[in-house]
UniProtKB/TrEMBL annotation:
It is a multi-pass membrane protein. GO terms for cellular component: membrane. PROSITE patterns: MFS (PS50850). It is found in: Membrane. One of its GO terms (molecular function) is transmembrane transporter activity. This is Major facilitator superfamily (MFS) profile domain-containing protein. Residues 60-476 form the Major facilitator superfamily (MFS) profile domain. InterPro entries: LIMR (IPR008075), MFS (IPR011701), MFS_dom (IPR020846), MFS_trans_sf (IPR036259). PANTHER family: MAJOR FACILITATOR SUPERFAMILY (MFS) PROFILE DOMAIN-CONTAINING PROTEIN, PERMEASE-RELATED. Keywords: Membrane, Transmembrane, Transmembrane helix, Transport. The chain crosses the membrane at residues 56-73, 97-119, 126-146, 152-175, 187-210, 222-242, 292-312, 324-347, 354-376, 382-403, 415-436, 442-463. Gene3D superfamilies: MFS general substrate transporter like domains.
Amino acid sequence: MDTDKCTSLAHAEDNILSQEGKVDVTSVEYQRMPESLLNLSDSEIKRLNRQLVRKMDFYVLPTIGILYILNYIDRQNLAAAKLQGIMEDLHMTTEQFATAVSILFVGYLPFQIPSNLIITKVSRPGMYICFAVTIWGCISAATAAVNTYGQLLAVRAILGIAEAVFFPGAIYYLSAWYTKTELGKRIAGLYIAQQVGNAFGGLLAAAILHLDGVHNIAGWKWLFIIEGSATVVIGVICACIMPEFPHNSRILSQLERDIAVWRIESEAGAAEGTEDESALAGFVEALRDPKLLLLILCNMLSQAQGSIANYFPTLIASLGFSNTISLLLTAPPYILAGIVYYGIMFYSDRKNTVYPIIIVCITIAIGMYVIPMVTLNVGARYFSMMILPFASVGPQLLLYKTINLHLARPISKRAAASALVNAIGGTSNIWASYLYYAKPHFYAAFGTLMGCAFLFAATITLYRRLVLRENERLDSGEAENIAKVVKGGVTEEMVQLNWRYEMY
């Protein structure tokens, strides 16, 4: 055994937190190391790990990001279509339009759970996700053919079912590749792609508006045709690029596969392809975990705050601008949000913290909800619109990081928990769609969101107390206390690895 490896073993008891591109080598983890890595020095392993992360960032992140841009453009284009005459052409009332927005979630939410259980068992998750992308692209393009309100409802409900595969599947997929010190920034990358979709969705919609009447086709129909068709084409291309799970990826050498699996196993005792827990068993274990209920409630409250994305063009239009200018003005807030998201998650990964950032975001959001309710000043109101996208949606990034690290194992449990939190939490988008009326102050919407913010702060604080108590039990070393923690969702392997609830 070489000097570097001996030195690593001698300092195993320090258990220093790993940084991105580095591996935390402890005696327990060393015993789990595959044979192909045993003869490598610690410096060689670190070099391979950094090389692996760069390759993952080159193949995994861009494809997932592009697909998420398409996901959000296709999901939010109905809000842009509202400014291009869809309500008049289909003779819809304001309440009927709200139903058309919210019915997407009727199909979207329940199908996330079985889809995420399926993705743990398929050998090519990238192909599975991209297949769903092409399907929803076809459905989105078909929206241009609707002629009645009832037909629009039917198409939107089916669109929700197809889109249910993507977001929880993408979060799970990223957590299968990245460690706890890397995952936050990659989730931020996903949300930055969301903001790019929001920003350029508005810009694209403004450009497509000029096609109104070409070939006797309304502008809002061109919107669905062009964006839906682009989704189909790009979905097919991405299917050829997205890699599989680390253990069977064709873009990695065997040595890279070994280190990709081992670095995930080193954190929580198991990785994709190395665990045989059934999907149903993982689902049941997720339901038994007391932390899940609190995380679901947190996400419900956070998603309610994030519902402003469904009506953002309407909120901007309430400032008195034309439809085209309103669509253009939706871009800057989303661009700012993307920048802030990366800063938030970079800080979270570097400092290994989540809770204080969530509280800061909630505090800022509360202040921004007050402004449109108390003033008609255009500058002040647009300032609040600049801040709200990152302040109201930012905590969701941190919640998804929490879910994938605090409910990590078994693997099927993590997949089920992620889908349950997103699916049940996402029901807020259904009822919140009926709050955005009575412009320009939107008292019902902003008042309700403010109440959600206060309740969110209280709930996440209660969650923090719960996980800190669990850490105290683990630190005690007493068999009785450790048994309680294991009953609450920590595996025996995680206990052996000296695992703790972090970031809170």
